Amino acid sequence: MNRAIKFFCFFAAVFLAFPGQQILAADEVPSKIRIIVPGGPGGGWDTTARETAKVLMDIGSIKAINIQNIPGAGGGKGIKTLINEGKGRKNLILVNSTPILLRHLNKTFPESFRDLTPLAATIADFQAIAVRVDSPYKTLKDLGDAIRKNPGKIAIAGGSSPGSMDHLSTAMVFEGGQISWRDWNYIPAAKGGGDAMTMLLSSKHIAALSTGASEVIGQMDAGKIRVLCVTSSKRLDSLSDVPTAMEEGFDATFTNWRGFFGPPGMKKAVRDAYAGKFGDMQKTSQWEAVRARYGWANNYIPGDDFYAFLEKEEGKMKTMLTDMGFIK
Predict the structure, then answer these.
(1) Burial, 83: exposed, middle or buried (Cβ in 10 Å; 0-12, 13-18, 19+)?
(2) Contact assessment for residue 32 and residue 91, using Cβ atoms and an 8 Å cutoff
(3) CA-to-CA distance for 284 and 215, rounded, in angstroms?
(4) Residue 7: its pLDDT value, please?
(5) What are phi and psi of 6, to 5 degrees?
(6) If exposure means fewest CB atoms within 10 Å of the residue's CB, which of 49, 105, 128, 298 is most exposed?
(7) Which domains does the chain have, with CATH numbers?
(8) Whole-number Å distance between alpha carbons of 26 and 94
(9) What is the per-residue pLDDT for 1?
(10) Strand extents, DSSP E, the chain
(11) DSSP state of 283
């Protein structure tokens, strides 16, 4: 038997001995895929999807990625599209984040993460509480003490509606310092986070602002605001001089994770292959440059661990939203 035949026989034997490995994990993800963004261009979901797609294509992990914006129903229209069009497909996935939990709980849409296939969380942004630079509140403790002394008198602005992320995260922070959500007033901006920042800077009636940590950097660097805390478990590289709420004595964290989902019923091998690509992406210099530019923290949680994480986060939010009267 010549060497070529021996070689063939050897690999044939290996192939038959390990049938589960006949299709490599890399082959489970098509070379061309589509990512549904359940919001308009320019938002957090859109940025996450487009930057992720660019890196995956640049490193040769996936050949072509098309981004499809499907706004509507607070993200529910995009989720429904994934469910309706994605059955049995490997090439259609969705980007989402914390609102998929909140908006299911408050019945903005009936679908939950359980109706999809969680692939992996990839990044985290965190919340921040900020005041004007001339504010008498130098620390989060100062602001908390003012609320205790003057319950119902302190107003905190946010860029989202009552019961949503800016409101809930701040309630959880103060709850961690034994301050009830009833003792301060949440004032939602009409036009989102930018409008909320304007409210803080222009109105003496607004004592503080709750917003995404990455959204305070510009005004902080311009010397217009002081950031009292971030809601991460440790200090952020992009805001290294800002303490965490826990450092300030408030026993709470809040993570605005972002990640990706497949359609319902996606096979485990496909799910794991996608998760592997996201994990490998985070080890690249291309991704590190993106992460640093936006102030994101790597938050890689694949597959089953991601599902368990979502269940835990949903449970915490449900408890708080029930206490606040937003759900029954």
Answers:
(1) middle
(2) yes
(3) 25
(4) 46
(5) -60, -45
(6) 298
(7) 25-125+256-323 (3.40.190.150), 132-239 (3.40.190.10)
(8) 19
(9) 52
(10) 32-37, 64-69, 92-97, 117-132, 155-158, 185-188, 208-212, 225-230, 255-262, 297-302
(11) T
Q: What pLDDT shows up at residue 18?
A: 44
Residue written as token pair 């003496």: 204
The whole-number pLDDT of residue 19 equals: 45
3-class SS at 198?
helix
pTM of the model: 0.83
Amino acid 239: pLDDT: 92
Position 301, amino acid: I
Q: Are 209 and 219 in contact (CB under 8 A)?
A: no
Beta bridge partners of 114: none
Tokens of 112: 């939950």
Q: How far is CA 55 from CA 41, 206, 272, 288, 291, in A?
A: 18, 40, 19, 10, 11
DSSP 23: S
Paired tokens of 263:
């359609």
Residues 6+ apart with CB under 8 A from 288: none
Q: Mean pLDDT in runs of 10 for the chain (328 residues)?
A: 50 45 62 96 92 98 98 95 95 97 94 98 96 98 98 95 93 97 94 88 96 91 98 92 98 95 97 98 97 90 98 94 92
pLDDT of residue 328: 83
Range 158-188 burial, b when 16+ CB lie within 10 A, else e: bbbbebbbbbbbbbbbbbbbebebeebbbbb
- Give the Cα separation of 104 and 327 in Å (integer): 11
228: left (phi over 0), alpha (psi -120 to 50) or beta: alpha
Q: How many residues would you count in the chain?
A: 328
Burial group, residue 202, by CB count within 10 angstroms (0-12, 13-18, 19+): exposed
